[in-house]
């Protein structure tokens, strides 16, 4: 299963407690790197949500954001922290004793002091449950988007792999003809130079030339790597790192093929192979 690492998902929910929004964004990254921004009332869920991400995603930089708007509980009303209010009043009187023109402290000024006026505590249990469910739904949507984006890349890989197999087959079929032509060119050079041919020495030189220019192993490995890439694309697991390794191996064989080239056509095929490999490698960087 091909999954892209670039995706976005957003889910909203509401209840008697208020409204909650969850947004997930992912981009490519070598490893799984989650970053969670949670409101104060949901901070205790962070470890649980991180563990869920680790079990559902293979790699990628994941940004998780939640926004919570709690409904004000107007039935119970507000309460005054009388102990804190009395402490503030006592402190104000002490300060007034040392002032030349003490100012009166009003009730509203005392109520504005942090912690004096308290709202009734919310029951966060239903909010936590709603957050877990909403996060799961957003993660499901994110994975669906990643899979959909990944499947859109499948034709690109299939086309490049098919073209690579065709070019490898062309080089393989052309090698006997190229070696024969190389032999004829050597004979022609000796004849043009008026040098008498030593058939035994010529046979040795042609054998050495054939050994140096033998690319059958490179062609076999290219075919094997192409088959491995196809099998990896069908695997139901994160495949990005494996494909990245295979792209390196394919590129190494293409470079060797180019260095052993006996003919401009073989060089052209080798260059085309490297172009195809690079096109796939660029897409592999964004796969999970």
TrEMBL record:
Residues 2-154 form the Endoribonuclease YicC-like N-terminal domain. The keyword Nuclease applies. Its cofactor is a divalent metal cation. Keywords: Endonuclease, Hydrolase, Nuclease. Residues 172-288 form the Endoribonuclease YicC-like C-terminal domain. InterPro entries: YicC-like_C, YicC-like_N, YicC/YloC-like. GO terms for molecular function: hydrolase activity; RNA endonuclease activity. Pfam families: YicC-like_C (PF08340), YicC-like_N (PF03755). Belongs to the YicC/YloC family. This is Uncharacterized protein (TIGR00255 family). It comes from Tamilnaduibacter salinus. The lineage of its organism: Bacteria, Pseudomonadati, Pseudomonadota, Gammaproteobacteria, Pseudomonadales.
